[in-house]
Amino acid sequence: MGLIDWLYGLLIPDEANAAKPIPAQRNTASGGSVAVLDVPRDQGPDDAEATPVEPMWWAPDGVELTEALEPTRPDLATEARAIENTLVSHFDGHDLSMPPLPSVTERVLRRIRDGKSSLAQVADDIADDQVIAAEVIRMSNSVLYRGLNKTTSLQAAVTRLGAKAIRTTMLNQSMRAAMFSKKGSDNELSALIWYQSLAGSCVVRGLAKQLKMDEDEASLVGLMHDIGSVIVLRFVEEHEKASQTLLDVPNFDYLCFEAHQEFGELVAEAWKLPDNLKALASSHHLYPTEDDPLRRERLMVILSDMICAMLGYAPPASYQLMESRVVADLGLKNQPGFETFLTNLPDEVEDALLSFGAVPGSPVVEEGDNAPSGVLPGWLRQIRAVRAQ
Q: Rounded to 5 degrees, what are φ and ψ at 152?
């Protein structure tokens, strides 16, 4: 190569070796921002530092909070104070009507508990309820469980899911029925706690994968730990029907926080949930001690609640997650792949929730590549904003 050719090569790089940009990653979180900017692959460290990179959703600018935030008691409206007094008077469960389990769900859960029944027998029981059977088939084809081929038969769906996932699906349907099937339901408030429960289930499941724990067991913990909010919802709906006034979201959120652990224990008892779920439903906001046998599960629930608040599925709050005690105590702060998990989490939660289907009044009506993107958190925030006025 001559000197002129060598100089020409330095000034004009070969087109085949030109730097290619890194695709940006989408972030649909509350107050979302672009996660990764387009930066040439051969850009040096000094140049990279000069490029302004927006903060990730789990490390928002100007936020220093690292501990789970308990809501401040609001100036409760007259209606909310009346409901609060009624709730407190029922903490002992006296004269309290529990939401019933559908008969098919009760039979299936009993079979799973005794451990002596086959999945074929479980499938036969599920077949008696067409709605639940359709939900089981749909869940087996969801992003959480689907295999290479789409499942169309109930027996194949039950086999694919297995006993633990079937249990979660049955309780999921029971919660949905308790929230939405009653005449005169407040679909907006129902949707708030419904999607918060589903999002919690997805987040705890993802955390379990990071921690190499049983994902289906963790999913059930995330789904059921706030089950007591269903009882709060029922009292609120009865009061709204009698008074012809709607309770605003901040008041509803506070009543749920104040009462859902007491009622969670009662529902868990009535539904014969496992002891670990009963313990978590009755007390999951206190930070666990070192000798707590459910320490990891409680830490996962606390972190899940913080994440849901940041992603728009729960009363809003912002944290520096990586600096939080709970992330450190779970051993996740320096774990390889945890930041990648957080980056992908908003989309993964949204995709998983689309798999569960829409609820009355929800704009989410389809599944797959054509499903609307970024709808759920924005829609839930809109409900909160409108009902807070």
A: -120, -15
Q: How far apart are CA 76 and CA 85, in angstroms?
A: 12
Q: List 40's β-bridge partners, or say none.
A: 21
Q: Please state the rounded mean pLDDT for residues 288-297.
A: 97
pLDDT digits (tens, 9 = 90+) for 120-162: 999 999 999 998 999 899 888 887 787 768 888 999 999 999 9
- Do 360 and 367 contact (CB within 8 A), yes or no? no
The pair of structure tokens assigned to 201 is: 């289930």
133 and 186 Cβ atoms separated by less than 8 Å: no
Q: For 12-57, how does the pLDDT look when each residue is reduced to its tens digit (9 = 90+)?
A: 444 434 433 333 333 333 333 333 333 343 444 454 454 555 679 9
Q: Please provide residue 141's backbone torsions phi and psi, each rounded to the nearest 5 degrees.
A: -100, 10
312 phi-psi bin (left φ>0, alpha ψ -120 to 50, beta other): left
Domains assigned to the chain = 3-50 (no CATH), 67-96+184-389 (1.10.3210), 101-181 (no CATH)
pLDDT score, position 115: 85
CA 161 to chain centre: 20
Q: How far is CA 35 from CA 50, 52, 197, 346, in A?
A: 17, 12, 26, 11
